[in-house]
Amino acid sequence: MVNVIGLGYIGLPTALMLASHGVEVVGTDYNKELVDTLNAGKTTFEEKGLDELFCDAVKGGIKFTTEYQKTDMYVVSVPTPYDSFSKKVDACYVVAAVNSVLDICEKGSIVVVESTVSPGTIDKYVRPAIEERGFVIGEDIHLVHAPERIIPGNMVYELLHNNRTIGADSVEVGEKVKEMYASFCEGDIVVTDIRTAEMTKVVENTFRAVNIAFANELAKICRHDDMDVYEIIKICNMHPRVNILQPGPGVGGHCISVDPWFLVGDYPSLTNVINESMKINDSMPDFVLNRIYEIMKENNMTDISRVGLYGLSYKEDVDDCRESPTLQLLESQSRHLATGLKVYDPMIAKDLVENQYHDFDSFLEDVDMVVVMVGHSEIKNNLQKLEGKIVLDTRNVCGKGVYKI
Ligand code: SAJ
Asked: Among the atoms of ligand 1, which is closest to the Cα of residue 324?
């Protein structure tokens, strides 16, 4: 039996995937409300294919509970928040989960940490916590780090098809964990050591962050001299060795906007490119806010409450708002003591911010200018609704003839 600890964005799909491929799974989360929702037959977030996977997992006998289970295999997928001041990862939830496993596990159990951690976290925080309890690692308990790689918006497909990395102290234990993941994973599974696995995960996300920052910097250069950044990127990408990403209103989500800071926090004097890249990405919401003011001026608009932000989530077709550029922009606006921007997102049912609408048409009625912050399918399929509005399209989904970043 596998006990998956933490049923959030990664733990839940992983538990469901295992259970729908013949593995006996119990999912544990300390949030009773979340467990009750799952036991009532409902999933807890929007994700393509998740509901179907949930049905298969229920047929496969998955159970959800707040209790840790006595077994020999644990997968820990709890959050790893980072301290925005020190830029360091906070491993407290991982350590707490491992401690709870130690309270109950069988001798020789394997604990697989899936949560993203900064390189060295397992050695610095997890091993000492285990040893302090008198357990001998490698005998009483085995430690493994198997960082997840799935992208929100295409999680189910990527869980099945992405290659995976497993970091373990011994090859035998690594191979045992590989066997578990191979129950559903059709990609290659590489077994390496823990430190390398920790580093690869953070490096992958840092690679993407730096490349997005490059696109964002190009957007700023092009804006400065009124050049079309999208046309330039399109032509550059026709070169066989160039593949530039897309500029946007900022970088959100709990991965790419966070993980590279772990490296900056740990190696401050060695991370110039990464540090500058993160600063460029973080500057984008303010850059968009300035664009809004510029465009309002150009159009003799004075009332900011006639401007609407389309999209609150951190990217298209997901309902996850963590570190979202729209939230960052609103925060920056309120720091400048200006408020009044209207907001609408078809994926967000809850009231999260002031002046939030839940119906596209009423939102459009109340604004003269629409700022596309997220390119949800809804807007891509309803571009005609924007006719007659001033449009600032930060995602390049509205075609030509509108303002861009
Ligand atoms: N973004 C841009 N321009 C681009 C691509 C993305 O501005 O060209 C923005 C998005 O709008 C979003 C942010 O960057 O705000 C991040 O989105 P994303 O789709 O690039 O990535 P995430 O954060 O959803 O998922 C990433 C993935 N990592 C990599 O591709 C290296 C995923 O595989 C990881 O599993 C995930 O982080 C994670 O959990 O670490």
From this structure: 15
201, 315, 342, 404: which one is catalytic? Answer: 201
Domains of the chain plus CATH, in order, are 2-192 (3.40.50.720), 203-404 (3.40.50.720)
pLDDT value at position 286?
A: 97
Pairing of strands 369-372, 356-357: unpaired
Determine the distance from the C-alpha atom of residue 290 to the mean position of all C-alpha atoms in its chain, rounded to a whole number: 26
Interatomic CA distance for residues 176 and 189, integer angstroms: 12
pLDDT in the model for residue 336: 78
The one catalytic residue in 105, 222, 255, 398 is 255
Residue of minimum CA distance from atom 35 in ligand 1 = 149
The reply to whether ligand 1 has any atom less than 6 angstroms from the CB of 149 is yes
Q: Could you tell me the pTM of the whole model?
A: 0.95
Do 307 and 291 form a contact (C-beta atoms < 8 A)? no
The pLDDT of residue 277: 98
CA angle 299, 305, 307 (to 5 degrees): 50
Q: Given this model, what pLDDT does residue 396 score?
A: 98
Q: Whose CA is nearest to atom 27 of ligand 1?
A: 151
Q: How far apart are CA 343 and CA 330, in angstroms?
A: 10
Which residue type does 16 have? L
285 lines ligand 1 (CB under 6 A): no
User: What whole-number distance in Å separates Cα of residue 308 and Cα of residue 363?
Assistant: 7
- Which token pair is 67? 């209790």
pLDDT of residue 81: 86
In angstroms, rounded to a whole number, what is the distance separating the alpha carbons of residues 178 and 164? 9
Residues of the chain with pLDDT under 50: none
Strands of the sheet containing 342-344, edge to edge, are: 356-357, 342-344, 307-310, 369-372, 390-393, 403-404
Predicted pLDDT of residue 403: 98
What DSSP assignment string belongs to 54-82? HHHHHHTT-EEESS---SSEEEE-----B
CA distance 244 to 216: 10
Residue 195: half-sphere exposure toward Cβ, Cα within 13 Å: 3
Alpha-carbon span 332 to 28, nearest angstrom: 38
Query: CA-CA distance, 225 to 239, in Å (whole number)?
Result: 24
DSSP letter (8 states) at residue 289 = H
